[in-house]
Write a structure and sequence with these properties.
The protein is mostly helical. The protein has 13 helices and no strands. It has one domain. The chain is globular. The protein starts with a helix and ends with a helix. The mean pLDDT is 76.
């Protein structure tokens, strides 16, 4: 099939975007793109909502959107760092109480484990603390690199949010300029590709909300209904359910965090309860992969197997960030090819 001029330019734009994304995944900057897309999408949705609700101030809806989102992001960052700082101060003021909590947790875990497994653990908390200090001394450079990487990733995410805010604010100005000054065919192709990327991101973000709600519902049933039926009551169940929804909005990483918390809480009750919780989490996440592929696939008319293969392929090559970005990347490519009438 011969391609016309518009299809060739659109395909060229798609290839440039794809190469750009692959390079960013290789240099570990994709988190900034995802945070920027999220901020840009929220900005557009909030602006449209404010423009409809505030007819008199509709022309200032974009400015209000920037201010509201900036205030939200600053509140989350300041609140998170403030909570962490207060926790560190609390530990420094009463270190003995913290050590007592850790010792009680260690004793609880030691008594819950089967004897064959418990033999591999230190005999007491003092030995455990000595082993931990020796591990930190032997791997201090590695731990420093991990902390440095975490702060670097946080900085990239913040920069991506700032770029998303700026891009969203400048959108009206670009639209006005395009009315008075027509775009070249190449610039129009790049803009169309960007619009498709934002559209696909909205699909994936919507699917993530659905998955988070599904995960929260299943977790609530498991913790508040299934386990109590067998006389098992997990501590902090309601807090874990809330954390499941909030952290579940963060693809992959959020689930890993809440799963670790749930597993540790179950471990304080019993070793076998922790094993049951782990089996439950594995089962739910397999269902989540299929649900994610089904929701996104319905929007772009892609099969579940296609998206699952793309997710596994990207995770193998690029790691966790590849798994997170795979649905967006594949959906963007397929939607672009469909709208260009190449497939």
């Amino acid at each position: 099939m011969l391609l016309n001029e518009q299809q060739k330019i659109g395909l060229f734009s798609l290839c440039l975007y794809s190469v750009f994304f692959i390079i960013l995944m290789q240099v570990h900057l994709m988190s900034g793109i995802i945070s920027g897309l999220l901020t840009y999408t929220l900005m557009q949705k909030l602006e449209n909502f404010l423009a409809r609700k505030m007819h008199r101030w509709g022309h200032k809806a974009k400015l209000f959107s920037v201010l509201l989102l900036s205030l939200l992001f600053m509140s989350v960052l300041i609140g998170g760092f403030g909570y962490l700082f207060n926790w560190i101060i609390g530990v420094a003021r009463d270190p003995q109480q913290t050590l007592n909590h850790i010792q009680n947790l260690f004793n609880s875990i030691s008594t819950s484990l089967p004897p064959a497994v418990a033999d591999y653990l230190p005999d007491n908390f003092t030995e455990l603390r000595a082993n931990a200090l020796n591990f930190i001394k032997d791997h201090v450079l590695y731990l420093q690199s991990i902390i440095k990487q975490l702060f670097h990733s946080l900085l990239i995410i913040i920069i991506g949010m700032i770029i998303g805010l700026i891009a969203g604010y400048q959108q009206n100005k670009r639209n006005i300029n395009e009315i008075t000054k027509p775009s070249t065919i190449y610039m129009q192709a790049f803009k169309d590709s960007l619009d498709r990327l934002v559209e696909v991101f909205q699909y994936v973000a919507f699917s993530q909300v659905i998955i988070s709600l599904f995960n929260t519902l299943m977790t609530g049933i498991f913790l508040l209904v299934v386990l109590p039926m067998f006389g098992i009551h997990l501590p902090f169940s309601k807090s874990l359910i809330l954390a499941t929804f909030v952290l579940g909005l963060i693809p992959i990483i959020g689930n890993l965090i809440v799963n670790t918390l749930m597993f540790l809480v179950a471990f304080t009750v019993s070793f076998w309860i922790a094993v049951i919780v782990l089996l439950y989490l594995i089962t739910i996440h397999k269902v989540e992969y299929i649900l994610n592929a089904k929701i996104v696939g319905t929007k772009i008319h892609a099969g579940i197997c296609e998206l699952l293969i793309a997710m596994v392929f990207c995770e193998t090559i690029f790691g966790v960030i590849g798994l997170i970005f795979a649905p967006i990347f594949y959906a963007f490519i397929k939607l672009s090819l469909k709208q260009l009438k190449i497939i």
